[in-house]
Amino acid sequence: MLMLIGTLAMALTVQQATAIGHSEAACLGEVHQDDTEDEALQHTHHAKRCYPVAYAIVAPVGVVLDINNGISIFGPAADEAPPVNSGRSKHFRPPRFICAAIATRPTQPYFGAQSHERQYRMRTMKRRNFLGLLPMGIAAATLPTIKSARAQSLWDMMNQNRSLSDAEREANSAAAIQAIDTVEPILSYDTANNLQMAIAQYEPFVASGGWEQVPQETYGVTIGVARDGVIQLKRRLLSSADMAMVERVDDVMDAPTDAALRRFQARHGLHVSGQVDEATWYALNVPAETRLHQLRLNLLRVQNMVSELADRYVVVNIPAAFIEVVEGGMVQRRHTAVVGRIDRQTPILKSRIHQINFNPYWNVPVSIIRRDLIKYMNENPNYLTEQKIRIFDGSGNELQPSQINWQTEEAVNYSFRQDPGPLNSMGNVKINFHNPHAVYLHDTPTKGLFGENARFYSSGCVRVDQVQDFVAWVLRDNGDWGPSDIQTVFATGERKDVDVSSPPEIHTTYISAWANRNGVVSFRDDIYEFDMAGKVTFET
């Protein structure tokens, strides 16, 4: 509410009288100093009748705008209300609504002229002081409106702020996600064909100069905001076909632009928020030439792999940090994933999932002992005890942490094993496939990371969201392993290993650009810089 009032107040101070339609002033209801009580009430009823929505919004606050003398606040924000001169009442409290005096009579501003006979106990603030009283977020929200080159009326601003309900915003997000959520696998002949069509569209566009850059002024823009740079944002969204063609573009972030921005965010694997956040701004400013380079490289990658695929397989796409479960040429499920960080990359490989470990122990890799555990123990000598990690020598004898010199790398000579339970880094299940890198898929106790834009946090292994559904698909031919059965085993904490009856293939790969049958082209950051290096094939 305060944000809307602050925005309305700032907008009204910069309007011209002609933009509002009054020759002397624009008021929702004008209460003059010399009004009698009856006249003041008459003006109030006029405001309530003619402008019911605005009156309902601002009536409880009592803000009076005066373009000459600044902003006067009375009612709840002042020591007491200014009296209105009346033959019947000395101290009649005026109605609490907003009145903007626009300067066609600069020497006679409403509630502005103070004579010796009329001394009001009121606080008058210039615009900068008014902003200073607002929380920083509200002040920031009003500033772009002040900077807008195009004058907006009060009603324009109200309509913009109310142009989309929560349901409509959710519908825009759902439409954006639906556009990218088709059944063809990322590794398929369909994707190869779609990439070829995308390249044919991008090539002439890049040859003609590509799309323009989106200025920093758009940062933080969301529905209803007018700001320098929104015109460039709209042209950028038009260039990439996220936004339908329009007759003209203006500097207001309107409903069609909200839908287009959400579509752009979905295509780039970002939070579908309808706001130009940092990740969105950077993605908007990747040159079209770079995107064309990605399309060409990834077409070659898909073509090289597609002929080798089985009927039933799993794909871990590293740049997108997601997993596709594929059968019969169609995606059965998609799972959000967390993959290896830049300095501990998830390797590119091909294998088969052969075993499921329920409520597993975690045998800590030597690389993590060297890089992490030694450091953690120096920072907190109780770390291993708190995390229920035990130490064993080569003969299977358990050691105490105090028996190891943590100032050296002595610890790498021992085995470290974390007990099953809620703290276990594997979570409730580990999914094994043979490979020389000692990596695997697994659950995790830190599921909040699945909500991140850039999910590159692991030491090379892959964490799987909704893992019970993934495991149920892997164990489909084992019988009696539905998602509810798997959840039961999770809950009991029972240690159990299950060999997979029909081991599906698993491919970890690097596809940073692809296109689907809807004509939607998706891109991801070149997190491992394989695109920059021009890599098409990878050692597996």
How are the SSEs ordered, and which strands pair?
Layout: H1 2-13, H2 17-20, E1 26-27, H3 37-50, H4 52-58, E2 63-66, E3 70-73, E4 99-101, E5 123-125, H5 127-133, H6 136-147, H7 154-161, H8 166-180, H9 189-207, H10 230-239, H11 255-267, H12 278-284, H13 288-306, E6 312-317, E7 322-327, E8 330-340, E9 349-358, E10 362-363, H14 366-379, H15 383-386, E11 389-392, E12 398-399, E13 415-418, E14 429-433, E15 441-442, E16 456-458, E17 462-464, H16 467-474, H17 483-492, E18 496-499, E19 505-509, E20 513-515, E21 521-523
Parallel strand pairs: 2-4, 6-19, 8-16, 15-17
Antiparallel strand pairs: 1-4, 2-3, 3-5, 6-7, 7-8, 8-17, 9-14, 9-18, 9-19, 10-13, 11-12, 11-13, 14-15, 20-21
Helix pairs in contact: 1-6, 1-7, 3-4, 8-11, 9-13, 16-17
Describe the structure.
This protein is an alpha+beta fold. The chain has three domains: 2-147, no CATH class; 166-290, Muramoyl-pentapeptide Carboxypeptidase, domain 1 (Orthogonal Bundle), CATH 1.10.101; 299-523, L,D-transpeptidase catalytic domain-like, CATH 2.40.440.10. 34% of the residues lie in helices and 16% in strands. It has 17 helices and 21 strands. The protein has helices spanning 2-13, 17-20, 37-50, 52-58, 127-133, 136-147, 154-161, 166-180, 189-207, 230-239, 255-267, 278-284, 288-306, 366-379, 383-386, 467-474, 483-492; strands spanning 26-27, 63-66, 70-73, 99-101, 123-125, 312-317, 322-327, 330-340, 349-358, 362-363, 389-392, 398-399, 415-418, 429-433, 441-442, 456-458, 462-464, 496-499, 505-509, 513-515, 521-523. The strands form four sheets. It has an eight-stranded mixed β-barrel with strand order 6-7-8-17-15-14-9-19. Strands 1-4-2-3-5 form a five-stranded mixed β-sheet. The longest helix has 19 residues, at 189-207.
